[in-house]
């Protein structure tokens, strides 16, 4: 009995080793032909094991993705952007009778930019169709340079009415852009009464000058404290010596969403989403300029987060109505014009209105020297009886350069074809 058992065990062992031999032979033949699983890295045995590993891991990875879709798509989105996105992302909020003014702003963005643009247009529902129709009528060569998306005005449900009442209709929408456009990394927000006199990519490039604590960039509200508003009248904290103006606001929204903001309401810092409503509740009786005041309060408590760019990036009537006080504009010309207080539509500051009219009337595709610059210079000549008209050469200094570099680009396109 014992002998049989021994013989049997011997047989089993022998069979095992012969099978092993056959397999190893088979393996080495396949290896020579390089056909093991079609994997070409490392030894066949290892790659077979790795394949098994990956197969086992895949379902759990997919499960993780399902549970955290936001995280997943955010990451792939930002990877895609790093590699392919050379666009400047421009946002505007348009309500009431601002359709034409907004279109003129977008036109100025398009005329002088060499790089592609994406427009995020937040507007009241009744304006959506007019925006779409107008933009789709722009000539094809210009259409190729931009894409756009139109959004309704939205507020956090809980306090929608309160937010809508604050300031002019819809103006506080800009505070919510980092929360609404969750997939967007960075954004240039501008008011509807902005005109670009140089390529949008120039201001976009300031994002790369942000240090690790900067998350937004704006210009001071005033250069001259003697006529400053905040330093004379504000009943709330404000940034710096004269406050900041939010008509041109460059944001790294990824950083805004990540930041915890110091404040004077809680002992611990709050996220952007958490800070807005308590801030409004605390200061609503003391603020005059709505959401711009809230931004001033936030950056008063977090000054290291703000990158301040000089006044020629947000040039307003205040910079010239009592005499010229924006020194950087004196040196380099106006980069971005901001016709606040309705000056594009009344007769108070004819120099500002002249720029608006010239850009609005310029027919797409015509020569910009003769159909934009020359008529503008002629009409600015008639405004020299005003303080702003007297420095109107600052309005065209940068514009001239922008126009001639667009022309050069065009010539190079033509000669290279
Ligand atoms: C609002 O203004 C009043 C009057 O200047 C001041 O006494 C009060 O402290 C201010 N409120 C806040 C929250 O700063
Ligand atoms: C914005 O900040 C994030 C996080 O620091 C960074 O990854 C991203 O590159 C920044 N975007 C730009 C346009 O600089
Ligand atoms: C970034 O620059 C601001 C000034 O604009 C400064 O207050 C802040 O300390 C700087 N942050 C870092 C991390 O260097």
From TrEMBL:
Listed Basic and acidic residues bias regions: 65-85
InterPro entries named among the record's database cross-references: Glyco_trans_8, Glycosyltransferase_8, Nucleotide-diphossugar_trans
Broad class of the protein's primary localization: membrane
Mode of membrane association: Single-pass type II membrane protein
Subcellular location: Membrane
Matching CDD domains: GT8_like_2
Signal sequence segment: 1-24
Catalytic activity, reaction form: 3-O-(beta-D-glucosyl)-L-seryl-[EGF-like domain protein] + UDP-alpha-D-xylose = 3-O-[alpha-D-xylosyl-(1->3)-beta-D-glucosyl]-L-seryl-[EGF-like domain protein] + UDP + H(+)
Molecular function per GO: UDP-D-xylose:beta-D-glucoside alpha-1,3-D-xylosyltransferase activity
GO terms for cellular component: membrane
Pfam families: Glyco_transf_8
GO BP annotation list: protein O-linked glycosylation via N-acetyl-galactosamine
Keyword terms, alphabetized: Glycoprotein, Glycosyltransferase, Membrane, Signal, Signal-anchor, Transferase, Transmembrane, Transmembrane helix
Positions of the UniProt region annotated as Disordered: 59-85
EC number: 2.4.2.42
Role this protein plays: Glycosyltransferase which elongates the O-linked glucose attached to EGF-like repeats in the extracellular domain of Notch proteins by catalyzing the addition of xylose.
Similarity remark: Belongs to the glycosyltransferase 8 family.
Protein name, entry field: Glucoside xylosyltransferase 1
Organism: Austrofundulus limnaeus (Annual killifish)
């Amino acid at each position: 009995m014992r002998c049989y058992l021994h013989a049997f065990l011997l047989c089993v062992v022998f069979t095992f080793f012969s099978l092993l031999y056959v397999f190893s032979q088979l393996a080495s033949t396949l290896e020579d032909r390089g056909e093991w699983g079609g994997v070409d890295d490392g030894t066949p045995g290892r790659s077979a094991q790795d394949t098994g590993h990956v197969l086992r891991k895949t379902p759990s990875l997919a499960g993780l993705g399902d549970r955290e879709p936001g995280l997943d798509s955010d990451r792939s989105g930002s990877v895609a952007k790093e590699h392919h996105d050379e666009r400047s992302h421009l946002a505007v909020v348009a309500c009431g009778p601002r359709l034409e003014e907004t279109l003129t702003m977008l036109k100025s963005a398009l005329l002088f930019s060499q790089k592609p643009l994406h427009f995020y247009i937040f507007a009241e529902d009744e304006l959506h169709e007019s925006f779409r129709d107008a933009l789709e009528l722009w000539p094809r060569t210009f259409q190729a340079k931009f894409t756009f998306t139109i959004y309704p005005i939205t507020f956090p449900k809980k306090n929608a009415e309160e937010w809508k009442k604050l300031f002019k209709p819809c103006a506080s929408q800009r505070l919510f852009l980092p929360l609404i456009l969750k997939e967007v990394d960075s954004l240039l927000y501008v008011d509807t009464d902005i005109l670009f006199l140089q390529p949008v990519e120039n201001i976009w490039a300031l994002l790369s000058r942000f240090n690790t604590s900067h998350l937004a960039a704006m210009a001071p509200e005033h250069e001259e404290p003697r006529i400053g508003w905040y330093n004379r009248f504000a009943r709330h904290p404000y940034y710096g010596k004269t406050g900041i103006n939010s008509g041109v606001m460059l944001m790294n929204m990824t950083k805004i969403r990540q930041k915890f903001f110091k404040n004077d309401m809680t002992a611990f810092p709050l996220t952007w989403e958490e800070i807005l409503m308590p801030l409004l509740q605390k200061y609503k009786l003391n603020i005059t300029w709505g959401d711009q005041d809230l931004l001033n309060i936030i950056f008063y408590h977090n000054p290291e987060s703000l990158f301040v760019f000089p006044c020629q990036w947000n040039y307003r009537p205040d910079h010239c109505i009592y005499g010229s006080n924006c020194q950087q504009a004196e040196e380099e010309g106006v980069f971005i014009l901001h016709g606040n207080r309705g000056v594009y539509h009344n007769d108070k500051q004819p120099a500002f209105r002249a720029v608006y009219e010239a850009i609005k009337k310029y027919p797409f595709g015509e020569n910009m020297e003769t159909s934009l610059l020359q008529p503008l210079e002629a009409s600015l000549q008639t405004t020299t009886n005003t303080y702003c008209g007297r420095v109107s050469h600052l309005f065209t200094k940068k514009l001239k350069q922008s126009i001639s570099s667009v022309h050069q680009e065009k010539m190079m396109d033509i000669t290279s074809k």
